[in-house]
Amino acid sequence: MSSLAKRTVWYSLIIIMVLLSALPNVLPGSTLEKLPEWYGSNKVTKGLDLQGGSHLLLAVDASQLGVNASQSMAEQITDTLRADQIRYAPPVVNGNQITVRVQQQEQVAELKKIARQLIRPAEGTTPLYTLSDVDKGIQLQATEAREALLMKDAVERSLEVVRRRLDETGMVDPIIARQGKDSILVQLPGVDDPSHIRKLLGTTASMQFHWAAKGNGGFGQEAVMRVEGQQEGETYVLERKIALAGKHVKDASLAFNPDSGEPVVNFKLDKEGGRKFGEMTSENVGRALAIVLDDKVITAPVIRGAIPGGSGEISGSFTTAEAHDLALLLRAGALPAPLDVIEERTVGPDLGSDAIAIGISSGIAGAILVLLFMVGIYGSWGFIACVGLTINLGMIFGVLSALGATMTLPGIAGLILVTGMAVDANILINERIRDETRRGASAVTALKNGFHKAYSTILDSNITTLIAIALLFLFGSGPIRGFAITMAVGILLSMFTAISVTRLMMEWRVNKMGRRPLEISSLKWLEKISQGNTIHFMKGRFIGLTVSLILSVVAVGLMAKPGLNYGIDFSGGSVLEIQTQKASIGDLRTGLHERGIEVAIQEFGSEGNFLLRLPMAEAETVSGENAIQNVRENVQEIADDVVFKRVEMVGPRVSGDFVDASILAILIAAGGMVAYLWVRFESHFALGAMLTLALDLTKTIGFFVLAGIEFNLTAIAALLALIGYSVNDKIVVFDRIRENLRIYPDKPLMQLFDESITSTLSRTLFTSFSTFLAIVPMAIYGGSAVSSFALPMLFGIVIGTSSSIWIASPIVLLLGNRRIRKGLGQLHSSREQRQQEIDALP
């Protein structure tokens, strides 16, 4: 079997397997039911922005973790002292610091011994506290190791409790995952008002039993604490030591008191808890036992006799709903620390279905435009590229399905963008083959050399884009990660289809052509230019650099005043997108003002759509539901037909993290690509690309200001994608300059640059135009959800393409002439030559 036939078989098998992975995405539900579950469920999941639902980011409140751990450590020490009959004073716990004193100075050594055994969790591990001497005692100070251990344990336990609580509510397919070192991400498909869920997840539900204090504490006596009761002004003095922990509650249920008919909660203890409860009640008859829930005494009955069996009743001023929720919380277990909602995003089902329709229609329109363009430019050879592109799209869905990826609206935007960028490799290949054909090469030779020369350029340009995409995945979250995954998979598969699949189809056609020459059509006027008529771009290098610098300075000034229109990702606060036909913007503004609610209201999108903005709230306000729920209720009073299409709340901590992560991601992306260019080309190529990127980015940010486009996390995705795209475009020009420098090392540098840019002009224009065509439908029909991505991308494509010719190349030319004056070469040299060049530097 020939090599061509073998490759055909192997590539066909790979393509079929991957396309089979994508098949469940398009099969009807009746067919999927007949297939094995493992195969039928192999589909791309729709994100919340496509199917509707709520996204909550919960942060573990570590403020009490350290105090509770210190209190627990103090109790362990005093329990051991009591068992050893060593008299002690009530320990003093001050945050992460514990002070323990004994009555006799000679007993301090024994106290130290006890403490050292307790502060080291296991042999060979780092101590959780440092120990120092005080008068008649010791002082323990928590270490960083304890803080890290507490947070890790708290997040892991909180994950499990959150999962159990959501299971108890009957929630369908919630997504619960750890995010960062102290946060938990919860996604709730189909939930468009998460206020009840937010309250359940934010309630600690820490239940403990404490005996009423006998005294105020003293040597050998228990420390006491004051705890509020249910009634205003009611206070209980209780022993600080926990008589029985709530972890022993194995079941709880809603019930009704047979005498009063009031809702109560019946609970049952596990075997160990039942035994302890029986013993402690039999030994403390006539004493009050308080049930403390989240630092508040729910009830404190006096024990009249031993209570065997391990069951009891919690009564209070409960409504039926409150008693039901309390029973649910007790069954699911207590959180180790409170969870604050630091970010909330809710998308209504109507908005989700609209997003799907918009994404599909704009994606299909963009793909059709790109395919028509390729066929129009390259004829039948362009049709081969279109077949490869179609296979590439199907394989993207196959790989995403196998990965269990989630498709979001930004993900659809990434799919559309990668459709345009995937054409780049095919254009590079076709242009290289045309160059070889002009030199008189046979069809087979032209095909072979064309792919060989295009390979390194394709590899370099895609690696730089992948650097930016990798950072999007690392620093992004939610939908932005979906965009990054889609882009990364698309770029890798486009390389496979262009270099392998498209080449295979072209080889089959060349074999059928016999001795006929290989002819790839193109635009006639571009062919004339590339056949010897060099455009002297570098004569205008100073004009290009001056104009670019002026525009960038103006853009920086616009950033200062009037400034960017920051979205809540960066500014924090709350946004509600509503739809109503019964109230105008004036009715809403007046009605809310009369109710004492000050919000910014603007018309948004189509008629009857409004955007309500609340200013930055403190973390506690965001984590609570009062502010946003108050606006909801009052808007419903003003317009009873109101539909809440989208609700977003972002706390100050999240917005601050977004700012830091975004700046870091852009800097690392630019730095990573510059480092790659430094290795692959030379320092002046890398420096030229870096300076050009800075100019491109400032102008693009200036465009955000002029166009009034919201600067949010999607905008950062656009900027990082633009960095990759811009460097991608420059690498093609740099690669041709490098190639010509090797062939014509003695040719004047300016002439060589002009010839290199002219010879790559068709590729530069075709790639930019195809990517532009892919994004145009999304920019026109995509709406506000992707406007922060699509519009800047269109602007950035124009800026990035022009800067490759008028900015990057002139900078490299200026730096190249400077190297000539210093006696340095233009390309990487041998180690000996490099050392000579270094020695020649001033």
TrEMBL record:
InterPro entries: SecD, SecD/SecF_arch_bac, SecD/SecF_bac, SecD/SecF_CS, SecD_1st, SecD_SecF_C, SecD_SecF_C_bact, SecDF_P1_head. Its main location: membrane. Signal peptide: none annotated. GO terms for biological process: intracellular protein transmembrane transport; protein targeting; protein transport by the Sec complex. It is found in: Cell membrane. It is a multi-pass membrane protein. The keyword Cell membrane applies. One of its GO terms (cellular component) is plasma membrane. It holds the Pfam family SecD_1st. SUPFAM superfamilies: Multidrug efflux transporter AcrB transmembrane domain. GO terms for molecular function: protein-transporting ATPase activity. Residues 155-211 form the Protein translocase subunit SecDF P1 domain. Residues 230-337 form the SecDF P1 head subdomain domain. Residues 341-502, 632-817 form the Protein export membrane protein SecD/SecF C-terminal domain. Keywords: Cell inner membrane, Cell membrane, Membrane, Protein transport, Translocation, Transmembrane, Transmembrane helix, Transport. The chain crosses the membrane at residues 355-375, 382-403, 409-429, 457-476, 482-506, 542-560, 658-678, 711-728, 765-783, 789-815. Forms a complex with SecF. Part of the essential Sec protein translocation apparatus which comprises SecA, SecYEG and auxiliary proteins SecDF-YajC and YidC. Belongs to the SecD/SecF family. SecD subfamily. Belongs to the SecD/SecF family. SecF subfamily. PANTHER family: PROTEIN TRANSLOCASE SUBUNIT SECD, PROTEIN-EXPORT MEMBRANE PROTEIN SEC. Part of the Sec protein translocase complex. Interacts with the SecYEG preprotein conducting channel. SecDF uses the proton motive force (PMF) to complete protein translocation after the ATP-dependent function of SecA. This is Multifunctional fusion protein.
